[in-house]
Amino acid sequence: MEQILKKIFVATICISFLTVFNYEGTDVFGAGLHPSTTFNSNKENSPYDYTLVWMSDTQYYSKNYPHIYKSMVDWIAANKDYLNIPYVFHTGDVVNEWDNEAQWQYADTYMKVLEKVNIPYGILAGNHDIDLKSSNKYTQFSKYFGQTRFEKQPSYGGSYKDNQGHFDLISENSDDYIMVYMGWGISKDEIDWINRVLAKYPDHIALLSFHDYLLASGKHSPIGEEIFKKVVEPNKNVVATLSGHYYGSETRIEELDDNKDGKPDRKVYQMMTNYQNEPEGGQGYMRLLKVKSNENKIYVKTYSSYLNSYKYATPQSSPGKDEIVIELPD
């Protein structure tokens, strides 16, 4: 009996060890192991300098699959040090029905997970987050994600109409970013505000977040085309746009001639991602923007903490779907 108990004890220890060190080999870029799903490893284990995380269209998680929402933010919090996560994006449709308090409360609870571990994040309202029939469209969004929630966050730069829009300033590994957000219902006033903000920080890498900007076809939506012409083109520090709303994922890369000498000076990476039409409202897939500062590159990957799985549509087989490489300015 004593021998049997010893064998059981040893087997239990081995299983526990394998569970804690739950990695699955190298990624498609050949750089390092999968992030941990169970614990917060040391930063030195990651082959990247830091990782920005991008969530979008979490509406079905708030409605039907809160455990998936929880798995996403728990994973981000657990990997804060391992991946060196300084910031998280959310590009809207936080809930599915703007007037459903239970959905807002789930979103409120789970986004607080990031706050508790001091990971700054930005968020905007999609069309499902506002009352489209009311003149006070943003009442519920402001209640849960208005300016007062974020104004003590060190990265918080300023608000437009109680967080209908806002901007954050992030510096990591000598890379200076301005993250600009504008929620649903963009018109001239909103565009003017974005341009004023960008003009104040011309030396910051600008990443712009909207809900509706790029179609699944890779073309601009009507408002996306207006934003491109009036914001992206004239502001030389804009490197990328992030958006959701439409089912699927796509990337459109524009080469812009800023000094009008007939040669491209800048690439702008316009990305759309929204997996809500897949099983379980998207199965927890989110974008990881993994930065290598010495290469001036961001390696964009698509990962599910819920499934512990990457989407592996490679840049060669499906350009712009799940994996993109963004070139940062020198």
Automatic annotation (TrEMBL):
Pfam families: Metallophos. It comes from the Bacteria. InterPro entries: Calcineurin-like_PHP, Metallo-depent_PP-like, STPP_CPPED1. GO terms for molecular function: hydrolase activity. Residues 53-245 form the Calcineurin-like phosphoesterase domain. PANTHER family: METALLOPHOSPHOESTERASE, CALCINEURIN SUPERFAMILY, SECRETED PROTEIN. This is Calcineurin-like phosphoesterase. It comes from Halobacillus alkaliphilus.
